[in-house]
Amino acid sequence: MVWNCEGELLLSIPITAGEYGELSQPVQAPPHQSCHLQHEYKHAFGSAGSFLLTPALSGCSAGVFETSVGCGGAAQGLHPSTYTEPAVRRNMGKSESQMDIMEKSSKPGKRRWTVAEIGLSVLLLLASCALAGLVVLYTSAVKEQSNRSTVTRGSTGEGQMFRSSLNNVCTTADCVTAAARLLQNMDKSVEPCDNFYRYACGGWLERHVIPETSSRHSVFDILRDKLEIVLKGVLEMTSEADRDAIKKAKVLYSSCMNESLIEQRDSQPLMKLIDSVGGWPVASEDWNTTAEETWSLESTLAILTAHFHKKVILDMYVWTDDRDSQRHIIYIDQPGLGMPSRDYYFNEGNYKKVREAYLQFMVSIAKITRDDRNLTQDEDRVWEEMMQVLELETDIANATSPAEERQDVTVLYNKMTMSELQSTFSLNGFNWTKFIHGVLSSVSIDIQREEEVVVYSAPYLQKLDEVLSRHSVRTMQNYLIWQLIIDRVSSLSRRFKDARARYRKTLYGTTVEDAWWRECVRYVQSSMENAVGALYVRETFAGESKQMVSNLISKIQQAYVETLEELNWMDDASKEKAREKAMAMKEHIGYPDHILEEDNQKLDQEYAHLNFSEENYFENILENLKSEAHKSLKKLREPVDPDLWIIGAAVVNAFYSPNRNQIVFPAGILQPPFFSKHQHQALNFGGIGMVIGHEITHGFDDNGRNFDKDGNMLNWWSNYSAEHFKEQSQCMVQQYGNFNWKLAGGQNVSGISTLGENIADNGGVRQAYKAYLKWMEMEGEEPRLPGLDMDHKQLFFLNFAQVWCGAYRPEYASQSIKTDSHSPLEYRVLGSLQNFEAFSEAFQCQKGSQMNPELKCRVW
């Protein structure tokens, strides 16, 4: 789930959505989708930069982490060239995996050492050095504890790895490595009760510098970068034994890496593309006389949607009906924009600088195109026409509803027939039947006047009528082609990429472009998730991790159910419904089994219609776009697949889907610091355990609570419980809304836009901690980690906080505070722990201190 970003669009993906949840064009997804991922997942765990989701992803949940780093647009993490509807690829965007952080599966046969393995050797050497240092650190502690006996561990297997201990201090290489990581990341000069984030992450922030290629740098980004290194290795390794799907992924990657041919072809593929969609008036001398008379907005939008998976002015897509999770339906929503959010079109300061750079980007591409058409350069004319395009885009942005007004899916959802759609939203004579029929005819689907559609953007459509009447046909075609081109710039020659780089420097603060191989890895991963996922899993993932994580999920589900009894704001009837929904959640862990089954043809069949050429990267992208558009549209007459994975395996994120009541934990996130079968359970519960709790809680946040255990939008709440839920939520809205982010120009966090993720963060850490305490009651305490004078409760909170270590550039902070459904990393830690009494008890924080305020907020 990662796209190339540039205001083009990523979802992502990361995958809004991706923070536990960023595509080629900025999109404002419905409230129940988090970015950061297309129509199918909203609540991704999300973090800094992985992917972004496409527009209007109905019933989606983004990840735990934001998914898009240094990307802009609707989806900040996915390659602009394509994004698939739920396969989910979604933000939301965007790991180079060295084997030291992966649990490797054993594979027979000899092969040359890879870069990753050489790196592992270096890391093992460093770990040995760290062990020597830590031995000195804990020798004194060993003496003090000489009279203590090692705690007897149960024979469950989960504790057997810690048998190597001295006076209850674990001395295995895994324990030493974990302790070294935790110690390095800390800043012990900070009082934990003053600012636990700085205490936990101060050392990390001191040691890490944001790369010149990135707009943000975090633990998530480091894991993503490592994952990408793994993918590079497997995509470049040829084998005659590869199945068809794998061969196609490698051909696609090879075509992307053929930079010399891309340079040689230059703008030729783009010119053919422009001509196929009616021409670009600004780069034509006779468009008004040769094309304007036959031009049709409905037909052009249909071509963009059906053949290029591009949503401009209107976003039409097919997804699960929110009110009936067993069928698909047509959705109409507001589109994404060329810049990351509507704020860039109106606000001053850094937003104005980006706006000016965006216009310069538009003009630069238009001038290059005119030059390649052998047209005389008329700079004044080009500036005038592109100014008119920006004015149109600004009017569209002004007509869209801000994220704060799109939080209640029950209000957004408006079902009507085609005939009612036409009579309700005439749009200056726009023929809805012609448009929708034009889209669906590409997959041989016919529609009638009584076909039902869901309008997610009634306020936008009401305003769009006036917008369309205010601008000329020429300006609209200029805008449509510009929106198509912006996604393709990254796949063209250096001239085009340089123009993009200048814009991105202003937008993200980045001064150097990513290595091209990374762009290629991200594109292939986002467009062929299951094929690439199979390569990744075979290379790095230990199969036994699936069962271990499944056991953790069961423990945390039970913790959530037990937590319900602590709530006095919810009546018994609503608690019972919540319990039923929690226990009915379906789980997907690691990867879909079929991608590794050699005798199962499902993986090859998924890509059977694709035929790539190593010489035609640009055309390969177009084929992918058309394929994904058609696959999505065909769903209208197909049953809902209950076993569909909403995201690929090679993703560092996690997700929840309201429409499916499904939680997903891809193989990419099942690694340290989140999870390892070799690390202490305090770290596992504080890492992946918290992520699991986060995703479970998404089923009961301000959006997920509107869906029942079967994924249907249905009010299962009593009036009493619903009213009190809103009261409890309002406390968090105010708490997080008071966090002032200086890096974003002193703007306050939006407590409304981030509410769902904040509820999930708070609930996730509570449930994981409760489950960990219960685990300790059953299994006993684990040996201490060397060099760390901390008990296991404190280790739980320390690892939880260090998962969120990260830094932003000011430019990215200004974007993130307007577009990300997750709070900034520091406030995710501070807000959650300020509300949690158990944290203050673990670190003995005085009542009234920064980390133990008098007023605490709690929903779950």
What does this structure look like?
It comes from Oryzias melastigma (Marine medaka). Its cofactor is Zn(2+). Helix 5 (244-257) packs antiparallel against helix 18. The protein is built from 30 helices and 17 strands. Strand 15 and strand 16 (747-748) form a beta hairpin. A four-stranded mixed sheet has the order 8-9-11-10. It folds into two domains: 1-267 and 494-623 and 641-860, Collagenase (Catalytic Domain); 268-493, Neutral endopeptidase , domain2 (Neutral endopeptidase, domain 2). With 860 residues, the protein is an alpha/beta fold.
Feature tags:
disordered N terminus; 860 residues; 47% helix; alpha/beta; 2 domains; three-stranded mixed β-sheet; 7% strand; Neutral endopeptidase, domain 2; Collagenase (Catalytic Domain)
Quick overview:
The chain is an alpha/beta fold. Helix content is 47%, strand content 7%. The strands form seven sheets. It has a four-stranded mixed sheet.
* Text of the CATH class of the largest domain: Alpha Beta
Oligomer: single chain
Low-confidence stretches: 1-43, 47-60, 67-120, 134-163
Beta-strand residue fraction? 5-15%
CATH topology of the largest domain: Collagenase (Catalytic Domain)
Under the CATH scheme, the architecture of the largest domain is 3-Layer(aba) Sandwich
Q: What is the first-to-last residue Cα distance?
A: 30 Å
Global mean pLDDT: 86
Shape: globular
What's the name of the CATH homologous superfamily of the largest domain? Collagenase (Catalytic Domain)
